[in-house]
Amino acid sequence: MSPLRYRSLAAHLQDVFGEKVWKIPLDAGFTCPNRDGTLSRQGCSFCNPRGSGSGLLAQGLDLASQWERFKHSLERGRKARLFLAYLQSYSNTHGPAERLARVLEEIRPLPGLAGLCVGTRPDCLDAEKLGLLAAFSATEKWLDLGLQSSNDATLVRINRGHTARDFARAATAAATCGLQVCAHLMAGLPGEGQEEFLASVRFVADLAVEGAVAGVKFHNLYVCRDTPLAEQWSRGEYAPLALADYADWVAEALALLPPNTVIHRLHADPAPGELLAPDWAGDKAGLRRAVLGRIEAGFPG
């Protein structure tokens, strides 16, 4: 256990590789079934139109060029040597398996590559795609799998397009293939309070005990420009959580998870220019201090 009283991704990777490992976000040009018309064209109510990605592919940078840009900066500024390739933008297993195979082949020879993280949805996976990911040669292979809430009514409310059962089925299948699953959970979703959020944490904790989930990424829901949630907020139909509440919720959530769960992130990190509310979500240092302070206060000793 790290001095932070929970097992962070940084600590986990330090244990595996014996040194600091850095994530490099990659935009492979995937889209999402919730945006391309497969399910809908609205997207999830909270998701920005760029799909939380860099947009670098559209600017003419292929994966190798994106990798080199971030790698060069990290080598120069942080003396970094090892990196995780993070397919972040949209849903990176959506579409034909052949496309995923081509992307993985582009990633495989990248210099300094230590592992792979693939962000996707539970309804964008099948046996063929899981097989491709499982066969990828890397020490660390993480599947960042969006759940957000285990409450199916909430998932409908935010236009998520899948159920909690879909998530459990996909996580179990991925873990059976040898992939480490990181579940994404959101605090402050419309219509949810602390009780509903902690119910989702318990749902994930049960899957972790069963071996289907190895990590968790927490997100504080913030209002992003050009989203359905922004429209709800502007009409007074949605109010974000207070910072103190978010810090309390995360501290309680960590106490519910198995101690070996790898915590990939404690809070969200808005991209420049996208944040509408709450203001505290844009103060990364202050947010981290508040959350860590509450975690420390919540642990004995």
Task: Label this structure with key terms.
single chain; 301 residues; alpha/beta; TIM Barrel; eight-stranded parallel sheet; two-stranded antiparallel sheet; 10 helices; 10 strands; globular
Q: Let me know the CATH homologous superfamily.
A: Aldolase class I
Percent range for β-strand residues: 15-25%
- N→C terminal distance: 14 Å
Q: Order the strands across the largest sheet as they lie in space.
A: 1-9-7-6-5-4-3-2
Q: Please, how many helices?
A: 10
- Which of globular, elongated, flat, extended, rod-shaped describes the shape? globular
Q: Under the CATH scheme, which architecture would be assigned?
A: Alpha-Beta Barrel
Query: The CATH topology, please?
Result: TIM Barrel
Describe the structure.
This protein has 301 residues and is α/β, with parallel strands linked by helices. It has a single domain (7-298), classed as Alpha-Beta Barrel (TIM Barrel). Helices cover 39% and strands 18% of the residues. The protein has helices at residues 9-17, 63-78, 97-107, 127-135, 152-157, 164-176, 194-209, 228-234, 243-256, 284-298; strands at 7-8, 21-26, 82-87, 113-120, 140-148, 180-187, 215-220, 223-224, 262-265, 275-277. Helix 7 (194-209) links the parallel strand 6 (180-187) and strand 7 (215-220). The radius of gyration is 18 Å and the shape is globular.
Write the layout of secondary structure elements.
Elements: E1 7-8, H1 9-17, E2 21-26, H2 63-78, E3 82-87, H3 97-107, E4 113-120, H4 127-135, E5 140-148, H5 152-157, H6 164-176, E6 180-187, H7 194-209, E7 215-220, E8 223-224, H8 228-234, H9 243-256, E9 262-265, E10 275-277, H10 284-298
Parallel strand pairs: 1-9, 2-3, 3-4, 4-5, 5-6, 6-7, 7-9
Antiparallel strand pairs: 8-10
